[in-house]
Amino acid sequence: MLNDRKKQAYNYLRNAIISNELAPGAPIREQELTKRLKMSRTPIREAMRELEKDGLLISYPARGTFVLVVSPSDAAEIYDLRILCELWALEQGLSRMHDSEIEIINRLTKEAETNIDWEKFHLSDLLLHNLIIEKSYNKRLVSFIQAINGQIERIRRFNAKGKARYDLGIVEHKKILNALFNRNLPAAKKALEEHLRTSRSTAIEIAKMFEMQSVPHKS
C-alpha cells in the first residue's frame, strides 16, 4: 500500500512540475499535499526524495523543498549529453529499426501538422527520441536517459511553445523520419543533430526565462 501511495504522490508531483503547474522555484507544501492526495506525509516525503534524485526538486536544510530551477547551464549540459548519446545511439541502432515503428511516429507527426495538436507533437517527439535510444540496445544508456527523462521532458514541453518553433519542429521531424525510412545514416545524423542543436539554443533561452520568472524563496 505504501508503494502504491508513494507512486501516486510521485506521479502527481512529477506531472505538476513537468506541466509547470508547479512553477520553477515553487515550494512543496507537504500539508497541502496530504489534504489534496488524502495520504500521510510518509509516502509524500519518499516521493519527494525520488524527485530530488530525478533532478526535479531541491531541498535546503531548515528552508524546505522547492521545484528546481533549470538554469541555462543545466539546459546546455542536458542537451550536450543528448547530442552525444543520441548520435551514437543512432549509429548503433538504425539498422535495427522497423518501418512499422517509424511509421507510427510519422503518422503522429502528420496528424500534429494537420491539426496543430500539441499533445500529439510532444508524443511524436518523445517516441522518436526513445526509439533512437532504445535501438542502441545499450542498457546503461537507456537507464541513464530514463534517469534524466523528467528534466528532458520538462524542457521539451517548453521548447516547443510558440507556433514558429512548432512548425520548425515538424519540419525537423519529417527530415529525420525520411532519413530513417531510407536507412540513410549520414542524412539521419545530420538532421538529428540540427534538430537537437536548435532545441538546445531554444532551451537555453527558455532557461533564462525560468530564472527570471521563478518563484523566489528566502536564502
UniProtKB/TrEMBL annotation:
SUPFAM superfamilies: GntR ligand-binding domain-like (SSF48008), Winged helix' DNA-binding domain (SSF46785). Signal peptide: none annotated. It comes from the Bacteria. The keyword Plastid does not apply. InterPro entries: GntR_C (IPR011711), TF_FadR/GntR_C (IPR008920), Tscrpt_reg_HTH_GntR (IPR000524), WH-like_DNA-bd_sf (IPR036388), WH_DNA-bd_sf (IPR036390). Gene3D superfamilies: GntR ligand-binding domain-like, Winged helix-like DNA-binding domain superfamily/Winged helix DNA-binding domain. Coiled coil: none annotated. Residues 3-70 form the HTH gntR-type domain. Pfam families: FCD (PF07729), GntR (PF00392). Keywords: DNA-binding, Transcription, Transcription regulation. CDD domains: WHTH_GntR. One of its GO terms (molecular function) is DNA-binding transcription factor activity. This is GntR family transcriptional regulator. The lineage of its organism: Bacteria, Pseudomonadati, Thermodesulfobacteriota, Desulfovibrionia, Desulfovibrionales.
